[in-house]
Amino acid sequence: MQTFQVLIIGSGFGGQCAAINLLKAGIDDFRLLERRDFFGGTWCQNTYPGAAVDVPSPLYSLSFAPYRWTQMFAEQAELHRYTRHVVEHFGLRDKVELGANVEHIEWDDASKRWTVYTASKGTFCAQFLINATGPLSQPVVPHFDGLERFEGKTFHTNNWDHSYDYRQKRVAIVGSGASAAQVIPAIAPEVGQLHVFQRTPHWVLPRADRRFSRLQRWLLGLKPAYKLLRWWIYWQFETRVFGFKYSKPAVHRVQRQALRFLKHQVPDAELRRKLTPDYTIGCKRVILSSTLYPALTRSNVTLHCREQGIAAIDETGIVTLDGQHIDVDLIVWSTGYDATDGVISYPVTGKNGTRLKDVWAPYPRAYLGTALPDFPNLFIVTGPNTGIGHTSALFIIESQMNYILDCIRTLKAQGLSSIEVRHEAERTYTEMIHREMERTVWKSGGCHSWYQSKSGHVIAMFPGFSFSFHRLTRVLKPADHILS
Questions:
Q1: Nearest-CA neighbor of 51 among 76, 71, 69, 73?
Q2: Residue 369's pLDDT is what?
Q3: Are 71 and 211 in contact (CB under 8 A)?
Q4: What pLDDT digit, counting tens, does each position of 155-183 carry?
Q5: Could you read off the pLDDT of 219-271 as tens digits, one per residue?
């Protein structure tokens, strides 16, 4: 058994941020456990055509790791390079165990340690455990009758097969969300026929991308300039919360803008009808794209809406609900992730045999989206209700680190072994979250989205300003915890 003070599960930005903050706190007795055979998480895994970030790159980066970005919205390859930059700059490569797929974890109250069982790398033990697997790591592929008989190629956008040549092929994309909105414009000019199966249309706004000049990139390398730009973008984006929660006129104004954009880019009235959502903008993830609508108007692209959806799949293609048979060579699943009920994919057993699966059976929840009663010394990065619909997820991750590191430092300072949030503190926090959620567009906007769990609770999002979350996580509240 390999023993460390801290184990971090996952090596994406959440895991990297945790590792770097531990090093800054003088803690180097840790390991990152990565199930894949490479370091880096989402932006190393998602290599589908057109993959790019939808938050400006200077903000979608770690505050302590500035970078000379080439464009405002970085594409996957550049995000991959940034990941390598962070790993090398902070010396993290020797701290990762690749191919360490976690099967389950258990808390031992006698030793006050977590035991982590992996499929092929043996057993690990640690005082503290940080889950940084991320909410967008478990792809969902829907089941359709006959799928196993399909003789063509299929894969999820999360695991794009670059050995398959889709050029001049008949391709179906199932899904119309954020990843589909990037894939469709990227491959539409090259495929023979493209069939897009849309269950629900999304609101789309133009993407204000731009390439940085040589001078601008030089300035991005200067920390004061980088910090100034980050804060300018941050406060500009933070105002969007008024639309999500506080101001119906602001929502309607943005929705009218989206309708004008749709009318401008899609001249065909029938196609516009299919692409017009029937819910309030913001209820589902808003797509930023200046190329999606033009791609959908191409002569080789056909949009199939809900009533023309998939009834079954056979050897050669797709049978639709309205009786069509569509021959296809490739089916691309752009169907998202289990980002709410499946936020932690492996079994977790805490004190007295308490199973996380049972605790979360009604719906996932956590104090500050980070800690749970009966699960001492366990911290969840991007846990329940930490998603942010208007700004960078990395800001939230860095805020969580304030709380996590404060917990660890407090125990070390007092010579204690474990810290656990109290039941009443978690309950009070969770009740506040869902009380505030009632006022948001995610709850009242008239849609069902991946933001919601099977229970109907909005689990993915934080119902307020990101600086409010930062304030909540800034200082540990000892009264909310049991220290032993």
A1: 76
A2: 97
A3: yes
A4: 999 999 999 999 999 999 999 999 999 99
A5: 998 889 999 999 999 999 998 887 787 667 888 899 999 999 999 999 999 99
What ranges do the domains of the chain cover? 2-39+92-138+339-483, 147-202+239-333
Quote the Cα angle for 131-37-381, to 5°: 15
Nearest to 207 by CA among 377, 378, 52: 52
Point out which residues pair with 3 in neighbouring strands. 125
- 3-state secondary structure at position 118: strand
Helices (H), 25-106: 42-45, 76-89
Cα–chain-centroid distance for residue 107? 27
Cβ atoms 342, 138 nearer than 8 A: yes
**What backbone phi and psi angles, to 5 degrees, belong to 363?**
-175, 150
3-state SS assignment for residue 418: coil
**CATH fold label, 147-202+239-333:** FAD/NAD(P)-binding domain (3.50.50)
Do the domains at 2-39+92-138+339-483 and 147-202+239-333 have one common CATH topology?
A: yes
- Pull the structure tokens for residue 348: 């977790």
Alpha helices in 244-378 (DSSP H): 248-265, 269-275, 292-296, 356-359
CATH 1.10.10.10 fits 2-39+92-138+339-483, yes or no: no
